[in-house]
């Protein structure tokens, strides 16, 4: 069953496109969380998770390209491609660095974090393991 997440603003798509044009930032749509203790004991997990999700996304992108992915969410991501390019859900630190840096600075400015934090404190780079 597909969840329905209504936009907060009626012209959200236009606002997102405008913000992306001005800043190069399009919010990430999620993260995968693994406990530090699990990664310490099984350091291969981060890369294995990344590889599994990346392979699934490659297959999904191929279905989008072929016109075979036709769910409402697929149509949303086809529209998003017009704003952000071929891959509407980029994975990895490098692909999301500008967004992560903006998120970190905003979290600090809003008092959600006690101090400025480095990217390496916040995220594990599965491609660097």
UniProtKB/TrEMBL annotation:
It comes from Paraburkholderia gardini. This is 4,5-dihydroxyphthalate decarboxylase. It comes from the Bacteria.
């Amino acid at each position: 069953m597909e969840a329905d997440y209504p936009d907060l603003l009626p012209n959200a798509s236009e606002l997102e496109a405008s913000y992306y044009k001005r800043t190069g930032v399009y919010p990430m749509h999620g993260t995968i969380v693994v406990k530090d203790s699990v990664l310490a004991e099984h350091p291969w997990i981060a890369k294995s998770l990344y590889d599994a999700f990346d392979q699934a996304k490659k297959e999904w992108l191929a279905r989008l390209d072929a016109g075979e992915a036709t769910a409402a969410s697929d149509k949303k991501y086809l529209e998003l491609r017009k704003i952000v390019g071929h891959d509407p859900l980029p994975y990895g630190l490098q692909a999301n660095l500008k967004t992560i840096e903006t998120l970190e600075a905003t979290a600090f400015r809003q008092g959600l974090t006690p101090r400025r934090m480095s990217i390496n404190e916040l995220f594990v780079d599965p491609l660097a393991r």
